[in-house]
Amino acid sequence: MKKALVILLLFVLNFFAFASEEIVLKGVYQGKNIYIMNPFAASGVGFCVFEVTVNGQLTTDEINSSAFEVDLTVFQFKKGDKVIIIIKHKDGCVPKIINPEVLKPQSTFEAANMKVDNKGVLTWTATLESGSLPFVVEQFRWNKWVKVAELEGKGTPGSNEYSVKVPAHSGNNRFRIKQVDYTRKPRYSKEIRYRSLEPPVTFSPPKPENEIVFSRETFFEIYDYYGNLVDKGMASKVDISKLTKGDYFLNYDINTVTFKKK
Q: How does 80-113 read in b/e, with b if 16+ C-beta sit within 10 Å?
């Protein structure tokens, strides 16, 4: 009887000793290591973390301390390589990741060979990417930079080719490429200029009053009297039937005009 109780007690203790949870960190290698604050286990015996793996491989880092480093250099990653770190820890305690941001993609790209062809397609070559982030194409029109296209970056540090259709307006155009990473600080390419030989777009006031008609397809924005954006897009006709009555500002091609919705 005593022997059975001892065996049962050992089973229960063993179960609770290995009851665990895990923290999963996903990102890309940026040349920096991860640092972890490692509290004592809830039982007061040993530390919280008992296993760390990187891309499925068990690390050899010394984790039996109040703080330790996950050394990523031993895995011979290249910048931009995908990284998955799994930190297994005991129940009743939670380790703290000091610098999880080092696995987030950073905007480090350099853009070259930027040009717009006669079909309105912007192409460029990007190098030095260190993680997949969206490329935002901006065009200068109506005295401000306007987002006109977006596509996902490949994120690899080699040479990557990109192309996207852009809505060139009549006359001289200015374009640039932007990326924003976790720091929220934008990174820009150099501007390029492109001259369109298309004739200026003309605008017909709402006749009938529920439709705006342009002489050809154009990128446009509509603002209400208080400066709120109510519609935008690329079109040759714009349905304004759902707009409330009043005065509006219309940006199209390279022009800004006003119209009244009756």
A: bbebebbbbbbeebebebeebebbebbbbbebee
Fold type of domain 203-261: Immunoglobulin-like (2.60.40)
Element at 219 (helix H, strand E)? strand 211-224
Gyration radius of the chain over CA positions: 29
**Tokens 């890309």 map to which residue?**
28
| pLDDT tens digits along 114-139 | 999 989 999 999 999 988 999 999 99
How far does the chain reach from its first CA to its final CA, in angstroms? 93
Assigned CATH class of 110-196: mainly beta
Amino acid at 2: K
Write out pLDDT tens, residues 131-181.
Answer: 899 999 999 999 999 999 999 999 887 899 999 999 999 999 999 999 999
What whole-number distance in Å separates Cα of residue 26 and Cα of residue 105? Answer: 11
Q: How many CB atoms lie within 10 A of CB 163?
A: 11
**Ranges in the chain annotated CATH 2.60.40.10:** 110-196, 203-261
Q: Is the pTM of this model over 0.70?
A: yes
